[in-house]
């Protein structure tokens, strides 16, 4: 594998069809009298929830159109602050200077763990924090040193605008080094694709994105499960936010209220996150 290459994933974007799923009409009566367009961008971990919720809403309210784009937490914060979108998603709390600059109101609706993951064929299933930091610093560079195959460790990381990277860097690496040979990917989905195709890779992604195609690793003896994230036993975790410029109104308010509704909380849990009520 070439080192230092950038693995590019297309910006995730949808204009969702209102005809692709069963309607939950009883939950979305508030949208019936509304019409217009709602633009959302930012954190990629949010997208499965945004997509399902938006599809249901648009089926119940055909005069409403909702578009969703990824791009990372930094982009979501910037675009909502500049009025490009109405809701900017972030996998980290906006910084105090961002809140002040843009007049942001934060809406935290879920807690998400960030799992360290490898290809499922890799026999390594646990690391210590010291080992993880050494891997990303480049001083531990062969799987053989960890009980795996005699092959170089291929590093994967996210770009600087990623909320997932920010949480991983602070809580998993203790703000330690990420070696410049690490391969960059653009989203949680792209990270899963990269790791599922590389038997010697290691990276990190939302716990909500773990499935049979990747294997989450225990860190210091604690597995990246929803139960461990919820209890606080697994410490590499963050909030998921949908931010607005000032108080949410109109379609934006209705959408955020929908996230906190019983059906919204059900969708959040079904996508692998821990719902936060209000």
TrEMBL record:
InterPro entries: PBP_domain, Phosphate_ABC_transporter. Residues 1-25 form the signal peptide. Residues 32-262 form the PBP domain. Pfam families: PBP_like_2. Transmembrane segments: none annotated. Keywords: Signal. It comes from the Bacteria. Gene3D superfamilies: Periplasmic binding protein-like II. The keyword Amino-acid biosynthesis does not apply. This is Pbp domain. The lineage of its organism: Bacteria, Pseudomonadati, Thermodesulfobacteriota, Desulfobacteria, Desulfobacterales.
